[in-house]
Amino acid sequence: MKKIFHPADKRGYNDIGWLKAKFSFSFGPYYDPEKIHFGALRVLNDDIIGRGRGFGAHPHDNMEIITIVLDGALEHKDSMGNVGIIKAGEVQVMSAGTGITHSEYNPLRDKDTSSLQIWVFPKEQNIKPRYDQKSFTDALKLNELITLVSPDRHSEALWINQDATFSMGEFEAEKRIKYDIKTLGNGAYFFLLEGSVEIDGTTLNKRDALGVYDTSSVTIETVAHSRLLILEVPM
Prior knowledge:
Elements (H helix, E strand, L loop, with lengths): L1 E5 L5 E4 L3 E5 L17 E9 L4 E7 L3 E8 L1 E6 L4 E5 L2 E6 L4 E6 L7 E8 L9 E6 L8 E7 L7 E2 L5 E7 L4 E5 L5 E9 L1 E4 L2 E4 L3 E5 L3 E6 L3 E9 L1
Parallel strand pairs: 13-14
Antiparallel strand pairs: 1-20, 2-3, 3-4, 4-11, 5-10, 6-9, 6-11, 7-8, 7-10, 9-12, 13-15, 15-22, 16-21, 17-20, 17-22, 18-19, 18-21
């Protein structure tokens, strides 16, 4: 097993008032030649978006874009005619393909929105753009991993154009979780949302991350009540 540890306090940071963003990988004003991507995982931005503020219409192409709202809400509009609000517990996916324009705003007037923006390099280039959104609030159960994103079009998870699997779970302290790599040759990027866990001898605290590859399974032991996001991607 090979590992790469990304401590929370070593992430890039940008504060423009209405947006406070932390970058796990080089993005916008933040550049670190040692943190360009982890396999097909290109972007993991941890955003706090001010009330009534957001990103105006902007273009994307040939990228799989996944948004996970942790707290609050985001209003989405795009060039395909999709309009809707993504709430906490919901996940949005966009296959930008040949090109898409979209905007994202926090529609709430009384609270900031916390969300994760994740970009994954696509498996196929120049596909027809597509959009999907799903709530996982009812599916999330304590001490269980739930699959949010999958390469299987027929699963209960959201499909993306890549052999990637995203999982999330909330666990009590002193639990042992075995994570099996779903697709041969993939690596897994463990991003700890809350709590404290130990993965193969490495301790992760809130917002720390650990990428592992050249392995078929990983064992996670929770030190405290924890919430974990696992991004499995081709290397």
